[in-house]
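PROTEIN–LIGAND DATA SHEET

This sheet pairs a single protein chain with one bound small molecule, zinc ion, given as SMILES. Inputs appear in the order they were entered. The predicted three-dimensional arrangement of chain and ligand is reported afterwards as a token string under its own label.
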Amino acid sequence: MLRYFLVLTLIASSGLAAPRRAKNVILFLGDAGGIPTLHAASLYKHNHPQKLFLQSMPHIGLSDTSSADAWVTDSAAGMSAIVTGQKTNNGVISQSASAIRGKQEGEALQTILEHAEQRGLSTGVLTNMAVTDATPAACYAHSSDRSRAGEIFAQVLKPRFGDGVDVIIGAGRKRVIEATSKMGLDIEAALREKGFAIRDSLSAISEDDRRVVALFDTADFDVSEAVRRAIAILSKNSKGYFLMVEWDMHTDRIRRGLERVIEMDEAIRKTAGMVGPDTLILFTADHSFDLRVRGGRPGQPLLPDDDSEESARKGAIRMDNGHTGEQVLVAAQGPGAERVRGFLANTDIFHIMMAAYGWEKEKKR
Ligand SMILES: [Zn+2]
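PREDICTION REPORTED AS:
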């Protein structure tokens, strides 16, 4: 009887209680996905406010996005703050604020992906921008200038921690090959030597790939399916994983931008339904964008039926093509999500992820 009771107690303490620490962290980054853009996307798709999945996540906060040298950040400084916990100057990739873009190198700042590598977890970046672009680059590379694509991608071959990023899925195939060949690198051969499978389409990625670089010529691929394939590979590591998923939400083309919000929202919903309770899911943006809902009514489409950008601009939306400096949403669920609350700095998101993994005590603020 006592034995039976002990077994029951063990089951209760191991299986049923929600994990207090995250084994895995998935960071969804809507590039330029500010609150006005999320709001417009909900109206566009659902003809109702606050109907996105990410608007139903239980823990939310508001993050300041300013960089070390400007109130309005670019993606380089914005993402560097999120993944290193330190603000830097615009144009700089995960180096300290002593870096000056293209002129002076700063100190390399250890990123959340590198912390995961150091501890033996598997890691991945997934994006519909070029994989050398500022947001993914800030996870796995360090440079005083975001435009140095070759120098940035070559760092995949020389990781500072562990065996470096394991899964890279994204656009910019031509750019990566051109930029690295200018440096005299046969990038595909060098990657194969490091154990990477090279793929050129989403369907070519095999769940048997242990490490993979999948580069596409298009920014339009199925983000939900890409996340599913990345997780299938990363989750084989019993220590856990870190995955960053970036989806471009710039609304310089309004309809396309809003469609992409919907695509990522769907990917977050599907991912939340797929991963276990040991996974922290976060959504945030690196900065907001100058788009506003200035009109429209319930029951009427937000954008005119005609598909052109010109007519989109005549609709209920006003758009001025540029980043803006107001706070962005942070939404979270899973272990450690309760730390997402109130007004945050973009640098707090790094500490929230570190604390969720149990690698750092909660930062007092
Ligand atoms: Zn950005």
